[in-house]
Amino acid sequence: FIRNCLCLFILLANCESLYSQTNTVPDSLLQLLKNVKQDSAGVELYLSAGASVETSNVFLAITYYSQAIQISRKLNNKRALAKSFIYYGSAMNVAQKNDSGFYYNQQALQIAKEIKDTLYIGICLVNAAAVLQQTGKSDEAIEYLLEGQKLLENAKEFKLKNYQTQVYSSLQTIYTSREEHDKAIVFGKKVLSLADEVGDNSSKCAALLNLSVSLREKKQIAEAKKYTAQAKQLATEMNDTRFVAAAILCEATLLEKEG
User: Fold this and answer.
1) Angle, CA 156 vertex, CA 168 and CA 80 arms, to 5°
2) What end-to-end distance do the CA atoms of the chain give, in Å?
3) I want to staple 101 with a disulfide (CB 3.0 to 4.6 A). Which of 45, 93, 210, 229 is the partner?
4) pTM over 0.70
5) In whole angstroms, what is the distance from residue 163 CA to residue 166 CA?
6) Per-residue pLDDT at 21
7) Average pLDDT of 189-201?
């Protein structure tokens, strides 16, 4: 079992709402929702309310996101509509309605390209790739991610660099799963070059583990052990038991390879 195990961590970017999810709508938001206005602030309010419950009650979140979409359309605010579609599509994916999630993400992507919003284009490309990868369409996922890579390669803004890191992470993961280890190593090292800058320890830890897998398969055991040790140390500092367990599994696999 250990011999065949690949420690793959798909750290694909979701919409901005996923960074601040809780389990209930805060009382302050509930009060504001009683008198919500049909303006841009109302859109943001519904998006925040949906994000706060998406993990615990995704269908309530979808209801809030629908309200944001309606207001955005009334205002003819394309940027707000693109953002609302991103949130809505992400929630549909959480609800395991991937076809609908992909559809609304593509609607957001079309609008983002019309208004030349680089951040939203990048988010949409990565979200689309995530769905395609989950449905076994890795070739199409790679196309989306390479487009995202080209778009974000020279990004200077912090948010764009964050998504650039996640594009590299996604490409590394896909190439590792396809056993295209030379390509996986290239993108894994790109993740490491940016992860510290943007403070993305999760992507860094995943990249270290996936680099260990690729190097192990290329029989570069010493290098693989080095990356595994770094991942284990970082995971311990993060107090992330999933990554610690994965690092221990990688260590065991490397020992078996040596034996």
Assistant:
1) 85
2) 15
3) 93
4) yes
5) 5
6) 43
7) 92
